[in-house]
Amino acid sequence: MERSLAQPVGVGIVAALVGFTSSFAVVVAGLGAVGATSDQAASGLLALCVVQGLGMIWLSRRHRAPLTLAWSTPGAAVLVGAGGVAGGWPAAVGAFVVCGALIGLTAAWPALGRLVAAIPVPVAQAMLAGVLLSLCLQPLVAVTAAPLLVAPVIVLWLLLARLAPRWATPAAFVLSVAVVLGTVAAGDGTLALRPPGLALTAPALTLPAIVGIALPLYVVTMASQNVPGVSVLASFGYTVPWRETLLVTGAGTVVGAFAGGHAVNLAAITAALPASAEAHPDPRRRWVATQSAGWAYLVLAVLSPLVTALVAAAPAGVFETVAGLALLATFGSALSAALRDEQHRVAATATFLTAASPLVLLGVGSAFWALVVGLAVWALLTARPARRAHRRAAGGGGAGARQWWPWRATR
């Protein structure tokens, strides 16, 4: 391979490995929380890898830009918080279908995008921070229960977070795998390996699943993945084909939902690597890195039964620790954005506490009720003159809408 291609290809493979190892445990935990069996979770992970891999290959080649996709890690955290819903796994799959349809509809119907944009940024970010809290606490819970197994993972992650941040989570994952294999070899667990395959599920549409899973999943996917993804690429000089990207990811989410995939979207954090000069000095050649990442995800899809088997065989808390450590930066960023504005701190705090609680009302989990509580407190405490001043500062529209919604700039 010529040297000019070796660099972006290598960077793309690294981006895929980092993205996969840093958050697959969250995805498996989220799918399991809403009723997926081990085989169904493996199928969902496989579907997500294939959908985002094919989407990256198509979009990057078509637009000659590093348009990197990812599964919705914050969305998977929402699933963990939602837990089981009435109707079980088929109802959860139905919610995934609805989420994908909403993502695609956002591309075709600007009014829906403006409606989501009207959700105040502190409320949306506080909801995300709330659903992430329980996952980010897992390292503390696990190290208390099994210090000899979990403490080395935490120490390694901390050391590499200081010396080589990009490799901190992958290295912690590798050490976790070693811990699991050691446990299995010692006779304290079993590793049930199966060939890769799709476990298709007929979706069931139920109101509690649509309200409690589909709507929060859609909101966090748009606000915490798609919109930041646009901003990341814009910082490197790339304009995202917004409508086409939403159509591709929305349709991909709908198709992948039947196999258990929850949501696909623009990458945010991992998008920076293929878009940077590290991928290639020439911005016109960096799309090759995303091509490489797409093909790498197709290869990683084959490993989905293995990684889900590892999760199933792992001592309690091992992979949960890796997931919690990987989400610390996202949690900190969301909490900071939620509490930054002192004027709206009470509404954000109410949203955060509701999302972090085990509240289940009318069969609907805490993520949806966090939005309801946050918006109600926001409306109650935000005086009309203050709202007008805020709108003038934001340039019109909903509270902070144009500060973060990319529709007008990137359509």
Q: Which short descriptors sum up this protein?
A:
411 residues; mainly alpha; two-stranded antiparallel sheet; 2 strands
Could you characterize what this model shows?
The protein is mostly helical and about 400 residues long. It is about 70% helix and about 0% strand. The chain contains 21 helices and 2 strands. The protein has helices spanning about 5-35, 40-65, 75-80, 90-110, 110-115, 120-135, 140-145, 145-165, 170-185, 205-235, 240-255, 270-275, 285-300, 305-315, 320-325, 330-340, 345-355, 365-380, 385-395, 400-405, 405-410; strands at about 70, 265. Strands 1-2 form a two-stranded antiparallel sheet. Helix 1 crosses helix 13. The two termini are about 35 Å apart. The model is unreliable at about 390-405 and about 405-410 (pLDDT under 50).
Task: Please give a quick description of this structure.
The protein is mostly helical.
Tell me the layout of helices and strands.
Blueprint: H1 3-33, H2 38-63, E1 69-71, H3 73-82, H4 88-108, H5 110-117, H6 121-136, H7 138-145, H8 147-163, H9 168-185, H10 207-235, H11 242-257, E2 264-266, H12 272-275, H13 287-301, H14 304-313, H15 318-326, H16 328-339, H17 345-356, H18 366-381, H19 384-394, H20 401-404, H21 407-410
Antiparallel strand pairs: 1-2
